[in-house]
Design goal:
The protein is an alpha+beta fold. It folds into two domains: 141 residues, Jelly Rolls (Sandwich); 75 residues, Arc Repressor Mutant, subunit A. It contains nine helices and eleven strands. The protein has a four-stranded antiparallel β-sheet with strand order 1-7-2-5. A four-stranded antiparallel β-sheet has the order 8-9-11-10. It is elongated. The protein starts with a helix and ends in a 6-residue tail after the last strand. Keywords: Activator, DNA-binding, Transcription, Transcription regulation.
C-alpha cells in the first residue's frame, strides 16, 4: 500500500513518543536507561515487554552465527529518535540478534502495555507495527543486496551508508562520521576482513575520497564512493 508523507510522519518514532508523553501516566510506565559503549541494551533491564526509544548515542543491531561471537555481523545502526524492541526484532531476525552500544548514551524503556494502549487510543497500532516491520525487512534486503557485490564495492557501500545514516554534513558537502566508526566496525558491517578493509581505506584516502587522520573520519567526496 502506498504511504503518503503525512502517514509516514504519523508512524514515525518521534511522533509516537510525543503521543506517549502527552499521557499523564507516561513517567509511571517509562524510565530512562543509561548505557556505556559496548554494553548490550537488552541486558540492562528486563527487555521483555519493553519498547525502547533512543534519546542520545548510537546503537548497532548485530547477529551472531555461533556461540563464540566470532562470526557476528552488524546488520544496521540505530540512531537518535528511533524506536526498537526485542519482540519486533525476533519476528525478522534470529534469537541471537542483539542491540549493542557503539557509544555512551541513553534511551527510554517504555512498558509495552502502556505503549499499546496509546497506539490503540489513536487507532495506529496495526499500521505502526507494519511500518516498523517493513523498515526491518528493508534493512535485511539492503544487507543481502550488498552481499551480491564485490568486496571492495561492499566496503564502499557500507562507508557511504554509515555517512548517510549517522554522519554530519559540513559546509562544503563533506560528511563527518561519528568518532566511534573504526575499521573493525566497517569490517563487521561489510562482512569483509579487517585486513581487506584497511587496504580499501588506504586506497580511498589516496584517492582523496576519505580522510581518516586526524579522527573523526571524513567522507570528502561521497559521490565517488
Amino acid at each position: 500500500m502506498y504511504m503518503t508523507k503525512e502517514r509516514k510522519k504519523m508512524y514515525s518514532a518521534d511522533t509516537i513518543l510525543a503521543l506517549c508523553k502527552q499521557d499523564p501516566e507516561f513517567h509511571k510506565y517509562a524510565k530512562t536507561i543509561y548505557f556505556k559503549k559496548n554494553q548490550k541494551i537488552f541486558d540492562l533491564t528486563d527487555s521483555n515487554g519493553k519498547i525502547f526509544f533512543l534519546i542520545t548515542g548510537i546503537l548497532m543491531l548485530t547477529v551472531r552465527f555461533d556461540e563464540s561471537g566470532e562470526n557476528e555481523i552488524i546488520l544496521n545502526f540505530v540512531k537518535e529518535n528511533q524506536l526498537f524492541a526485542k519482540d519486533l526484532f525476533s519476528q525478522i531476525y534470529p534469537s541471537t540478534s542483539e542491540v549493542k552500544a557503539l557509544s555512551d548514551g541513553a534511551c527510554w524503556a517504555i512498558d509495552r502495555y502502556f505503549f499499546d494502549r496509546i497506539l490503540t487510543e489513536y487507532d495506529v497500532k496495526e499500521q505502526f507495527i507494519i511500518h516498523e516491520l517493513l523498515g526491518l525487512s528493508k534493512d535485511t534486503f539492503s544487507h543481502l543486496r550488498k552481499s551480491t557485490t564485490s568486496k571492495e564495492e561492499r566496503v564502499r557501500m557500507c562507508i557511504k551508508q554509515i555517512g548517510e545514516q549517522l554522519g554530519t554534513v559540513g559546509e562544503n558537502g563533506e560528511i563527518v562520521l561519528p568518532a566511534a566508526i573504526t575499521q573493525p566496525i566497517i569490517a563487521s558491517f561489510s562482512t569483509a576482513t579487517r585486513e581487506f578493509v584497511a587496504l580499501i581505506i588506504k586506497k580511498l584516502t589516496c584517492e582523496g575520497i576519505l580522510q581518516v587522520r586526524p579522527k573523526p573520519w571524513i567522507i570528502l567526496d561521497v559521490d565517488r564512493l
